[in-house]
Amino acid sequence: MDFPVLSVITFTPIAAALLILLLPAQRKNEARAVALAAASFALILSFGVYFNYDQAAAGYQFIEKYNWLPALGISLHFGVDGMSTPLVLLTGVVMFTGVLISWGDDDKHVMAGIQDRPREFFAFLFILASGVFGVFVSLDLFMLFFFYEIAVFPMYLLIAIWGWIVTREYAAMKLTLYLFLGSVVSLVGVLVMYWVQYQNTGVLTFDMLEMEKAGFSQIFQNIWFLPVFLGFAVLGGIWPFHNWSPDGHVAAPTAVSMFHAGVLMKLGAFAALRVGIMLLPQGAQSWSWLIMTFAAIAVVYGAYIAFVQTDFKYMVGFSSVSHMGLVMLGFSTLNRQGLLGAGVQMFSHGVMTALFFAVVGMIYDRAHTREIPELGGMNKVMPFAAIGFIIGGLVSMGMPGFSGFIAEFPIFMGVWGRQWLVAVIAIISIIITAGYIMRNIGQVFFGNMPEKFEGHLTDVTVLDKIAITTLCLFMILIGLFPGFMVPLVQTGVENILRLLGGA
Amino acid sequence: MFTSTLFASILPEILILTIGLLVLVVEPFWKEEQRRNVGWLTAVGLLAAMVISLLFARPGEPISTLGGTVRFDWLGFFFKMLFMFAGAATALLLMDNEKVGHRGEAYLLLLASLLGMNLMASAADLVMLYLAIETTSIPLYILAGFMLADDKSTEAGFKYLLFGALTSTVMLYGFSLVFGFTGTTDLYQLADMLKAGNLELVTTFSVLALILVGIGFKVSIVPLHFWAPDVYEGSPTPVAGFLSTASKAAGFAVLTRLFIVAFPDLASSWTAVLAVLAAVTMTVGNLLALPQTNIKRLLAFSSVAHAGYVLIGVIALTQLGVASVVFYLAAYILTNLLAFGIVMAFSRVTGLEEITDYAGMSRRNPGLALMMLAAFLSLAGMPPFGGFVAKVVVFAAGVQAGYVWLVVIGIINSAIGVYYYLNVLKYVYLYRMPNQDEENHPVPLTRPYAIALVVLVFGVILIGTLFAPWFSWSDAAALNLF
What we know:
The complex is a heterodimer of chains A (503) and B (482).
Chain A lengths: L4 H18 L5 H25 L8 E9 L4 E7 L3 H18 L16 H20 L3 H22 L5 H34 L6 H4 L6 H16 L10 H8 L2 H26 L1 H28 L3 H22 L2 H32 L10 H4 L1 H15 L5 H16 L1 H27 L15 H19 L5 H14 L4
Chain B lengths: L3 H6 L1 H16 L11 H19 L6 E3 L4 E3 L1 H21 L3 H4 L2 H19 L3 H19 L6 H32 L4 H10 L4 H19 L7 H8 L2 H26 L4 H23 L5 H22 L2 H32 L10 H4 L1 H15 L5 H15 L3 H26 L17 H19 L2 H12 L3
Antiparallel strand pairs in B: 1-2
Helix pairs in contact in B: 2-3, 2-6, 3-4, 4-6, 4-12, 4-15, 4-20, 4-21, 6-7, 6-12, 7-8, 7-12, 8-10, 8-11, 10-12, 11-12, 11-14, 12-14, 12-15, 13-14, 13-19, 14-15, 14-18, 14-19, 15-17, 15-18, 15-20, 15-21, 17-19, 17-20, 18-19, 18-20
């Protein structure tokens, strides 16, 4: 393919961000329009990549390679495989729906969307989006880091400026420091890998396809796997380094929560997979028991904490920890079923949690409270949001017919193959999840509406409805027609299994 | 003997001197209110000098000229270009500082100190080196205390003078001992002489320590950093920016050349000392930056911390190490000049320098706030700004040389850095002014600021994204030492 589609996808958001910054500050609607146009463009292109990926050929496709700094072996090397293609699409979807949700309205009294300085908001959000796309498509470790850090720092500003006023400063700083420390710990590991592979092969390169052949010794892999994997996994919300994540989710404005839980956490999981497991496969085999333990704890503990939350957004935040735990659990199996499930779960959880946060945001913007006991009867005023949340809830519970089932079932199969006891423990989380999801649907959407809300609440906007519909479509599509995604992820899994030595 | 190589080797210095003389001649004929235009003259002159030097005075094979006192190589040349660029930017930033920039002497002093720095970068002889260091320092003492009516500025100038004079005396003593032991002052012969002299390790090591005092003062290594915060706080802001960038980089130019060329055989002993100093410098700099409330003091401690990061590259003792030092300094000079330029532009309008005074700045001047974002994120080492690549390269050099423990200390320090840099941005973007009506007061930029800051911001982004050419130059410079 001659058209450099991946670099266009990656750099579209940042170009749009610059364009938005050049607009005068009062031109709020123009800034929003540019944002929506760029997001739609990126979404269409990521659809293009998704459907044009040749599953029969598998491997890395849409390759682009430019020598960036030959002296140190740094190149701008882009390409996607079966694992990253769905994530590129996911980023496109979340970006598009995120813009719709934050459109804001300067005239009405509803505090929906972003009214204060939308220009800066969209600019920072899109810089973040560029970083996310960049990580998913980079095949060069240096560039992966470059984009990874680009994805981290706008988060601070987005949360601190537009976040929930009570905890935003604390949460934003906590999040940034956690993620920064995690990433630099990985960086040390990566630099060590870089020099050792130079000693082993005599080739100075950050190219991951080359580094796969570095032949790291077993001891080396055992030492460096943990720092590299866990450093990235911090962003994936792995227990016991998950603490930043619910705080960050809650403090962030709606679109940023969507991005954060929907895409950013996948970034951590994906980088941990690509750098940790794929470059240090023997290290992964030695330590998979520890990762499995952490992940299993995250799954059950996250679900349990979500169960006892009374704050709606904290509940969704901890459910993210639980579901990302499933992704890590899938990774830790290192077998076909587990990795396949983890790959699908990344996408499925991405759209599901984006939908959750979108709905929570819509309710909070109108009711000005997120305390579950204080809410009720939302179904009457915003039926559309209620339907969306219920579909998301079914996905979350792993109900057959929805994408959650397609993702979680193989993960549990994979875990059972490795260690049946862990599978039994982890499955408890499904029951807890069903418990808190059902309870919430009952209370928030169908309970009695408190008197203070009677007549004061308005329905969600048309843009919100478009966003909800888009997200729901994916969850149902994958649930009813797994062929949409599973064979694609399968090709990516085969590649990982090859690196793991055909396990 | 006046050959073309000889001429080329000191062409930048000749041009700087010419600009200085031009300033001297022109300034008295200009009216009082036109005198700030000397700044344009200086900046444009320096840029022209850079272009001329790049066209006609590029070094070829490394060679010693002027009787072995000046080394004509890429290392010196690249640093000279950096200094001259920093000088031009500083001249622009000085122009609208009324108490300093409206007098021609300020620019003359700046040029004189620039002349000294250029010679520092290329000095190949201890005598020349000492002369160059003094030529750099003395004008800076005066510039730091230029605002006579201001107590803090006077204190800054005096403090800088006392510290500088003391440390340079100690260094001079070290130089004299070197000469006494070896009978030569030529850096490129020292290594052989030291070997032939069969000196005891203790002797040479103590000599080295004496020399390190002088250079450590210039680059503000802990425990020789005490002057930095007070001097930066009191000096006119553009001068503080110049001190923290060009002057520090000149110190590093000397440090790398001196230690790698003249004392390679003692490497194992002095790298161990420098490694500890680097760790302490980073940590102390960053920890002391945490409680600062004055933005210039914060930047002072941050610049101490950055000296620690750069030392990692020096200690690596490899070509990549030196290249990373040069690259880091290039990125750091641009970034820190930008930061000080913004502080200057802001305090010129508001007269305020506390971090809390930056509240609501993003509403008063969104463009300036964005530049501040770029500067501080680059200092924190975030892409796509220069600081990120610079840090990765320095850390890579450290890991290559086996200093994983030092790099780990470095990354922990970077995280501390992220905390206080973001803290400043929090004021800029998040907090509002106590009286929200005041947010309607804009922070206008005059033309010299606008030009200087925009150029610097583009530079910071350019060096952080298209880093290949910059790194190739740094690498070429490093090659000359090995």
